Amino acid sequence: MNPKDFGKVAVLMGGHSAEREVSLMSGGGVLQALQSKGVDAHAFDPAERELSELKREGFQRCFIALHGRFGEDGTVQGALELLGIPYTGSGVMASAISIDKVMTKRVWLAEGIPTPRYTLLRRGSYDAAQVAGVPADLGLPVIVKPAREGSSIGVAKVGALADMQAAVDASAALDADVLCEQFVAGDEVTCPIPGTGEDARALPVIRIVAPAGNYDYQNKYFTDDTQYLVPCGLPAGEEAAIRELVVKAYRVLGCRGWGRIDVMIDAATRKPYLLEINTSPGMTGHSLVPMSARASGISYEDLCLQLLATAALDQVKETAQS
């Protein structure tokens, strides 16, 4: 498309979630990229302005660079559906399911897609005996995290039973649902998926080598100590199998536009286990989707333009019959 054909574009960034800081970095990069391509793009922060202003000010498309709750969970998507403004990324239902790591696991398991075993604890309902029982079921170390946060916010790798209660309580302070997940030791990889339905495809897999294996919030966004290997260095058959698996996982959730799925490969069996999906991935200087796209010969600016071109609505309003 000619960049002018997109009309007036809002880059939604910031928002109300715990990932606001990252979202502002992502949105700033996207905004600059779109403007450099000649798109009439403007920053729009839903934490500071009512979404109804999008309609009043004549915006014709939205690039969603929001992360986490109130941006990646179907709420903004639903508002844009009502306003009739096409937007990037997955629709209402796929966004709502994908933001919830437990619901995502349930769908994947129903479809035979491998994901680590887990226990769900609910704020206000668990007691000390239930918390202590998690390592007995899943083993140690165990991963404890809020079910609906991203960017590794609130994630803890618990290596001792004595530390379980504090980790669960810390996650429960961020989310009513606490996901306790079997730890899979091995290679950590991620794979972006652009496209919709049968047109969805996997970009090159990235292997992540973080300091001491700790790919936390700090090592994701604010240090240069983490190594990102693309080409990933996995055997060709392994990478091809992972790319095929993540596309299947993306499709069964009903995702569209783009996404990124995180995977652990068991060191002993080489079996991949899918951890979670991001339906509004980061677009910062440390982010993984632009890195993988670049390995495919797609620049950051062209990637932003291509994603904007996929903006759509779940529901097409019917015209009244005369």
TrEMBL record:
Gene3D superfamilies: 3.40.50.20, ATP-grasp fold, A domain, ATP-grasp fold, B domain. InterPro entries: ATP-grasp (IPR011761), ATP_grasp_subdomain_1 (IPR013815), D-Ala_lig_Van_CS (IPR000291), D_ala_D_ala (IPR005905), Dala_Dala_lig_C (IPR011095), Dala_Dala_lig_N (IPR011127), PreATP-grasp_dom_sf (IPR016185). It holds the Pfam family Dala_Dala_lig_C. Its cofactor is Mn(2+); Mg(2+). It comes from the Bacteria. Pathway: Cell wall biogenesis; peptidoglycan biosynthesis. Keywords: ATP-binding, Cell shape, Cell wall biogenesis/degradation, Cytoplasm, Ligase, Nucleotide-binding, Peptidoglycan synthesis. The keyword Cell wall biogenesis/degradation applies. It catalyses: 2 D-alanine + ATP = D-alanyl-D-alanine + ADP + phosphate + H(+). One of its GO terms (molecular function) is ligase activity. Residues 105-309 form the ATP-grasp domain. Cell wall formation. Belongs to the D-alanine--D-alanine ligase family. This is D-alanine--D-alanine ligase. It comes from Ramlibacter terrae. The gene is ddl.
